[in-house]
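question for whoever is on the cluster today: can someone run the full assembly for these? two chains, 335 residues total. i dont have access anymore since they changed the login thing
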Amino acid sequence: MLGHPCELDLAAAPTWSFVGNHCFTQISDTWATLDHCYYKYKLKDDRSSSYDWYALHRFGTASNNSPWVLDSAKIRAYRYSGSSQTWADWTPRTNWSGGSCSTVSIGITTPVGGLSKSFERCPEAVTFTKSANGTQPDYAQTWSGRRTRGNRELNFEIAVRVKQNGTATWTLPASVNGGPY
Amino acid sequence: MTRLRIPLVLVLAVAACTSGGPPAGTIPSVEQARRHLDEVVRMARAGDFDGMCALGDGNCERILDMAGRDAVPPDPPKVVGTRMVPTTSSNGQQSFGGIVFVLCGVDGRGEPYDSEMLVFNDGNGLRAINPVYWGPTRIASSPQTAATFEPVSC
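^ ran it for u. tokens below:
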């Protein structure tokens, strides 16, 4: 939520402003690899004198290192030292498994939307863990599917609130696991 | 004895399946990395995005969507810096270092850009993290999100 309603000029239109992005070096456990990145945004024209909001789009692509197989991959974001953060939103909000590969949309909506992204969801299992509301934000997404040959996508967005002029810095671990067969 | 045989078989199998080139994580020379950069640029300017992404990382298509296929710079990027990122290993995960090029120029829409591209060895040859050099992507040097993203002087 955007804090107290009186802090908002409802005629204004807060929007996410791109701050910057990085990709990381490729990681591997020999059998499989993971390429992972993030985009960081700050809410512009939030009309609040008490808080600022930041959003993080975190994504990655895991692959088997042919001829070996991919078993699981995980990407995570948790608050680094600095400003205290409060959860605003996170997506996906559900786990899923089964079915077939399909393209779905993810996108935070609180405090505003506008960062919707497509995400190729595949059949094995994609689960998330999230720290409780009221604690420092920590979100992790895990894809699991034994003996997969091919690419699998990981993708999530989170939004947090910090004090006015505060910063939002996250630590972004990732891991991938595969096997010989 | 059986327990010892399995790892040995796996080691031999891994060795048999390597390309015969440098092992994954071997840092390429700046000249080797530059040739890979030049090939990426050639494919981008030719509009061969499949070929370009085949030289790149698993997120190439996603970042290409964001940067725009219509925004390929008409001119090759200016290389304004290079640095080496070491290969590291932790908790059973290797992180493949390589050569980072700091790039800048003007994109196909007339907008200035600056970005970074990492060229590394994945065991089957050279690959690039962020072949989409006309986007804003930098190469992370730490596991934390950066506090600032200072523009590159081009």
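summary bc i know u wont read the tokens: Chain A has a mean pLDDT of 92. Residues 5-179 of chain A form a domain with the Leukocidin-like fold (CATH 2.70.240.10).
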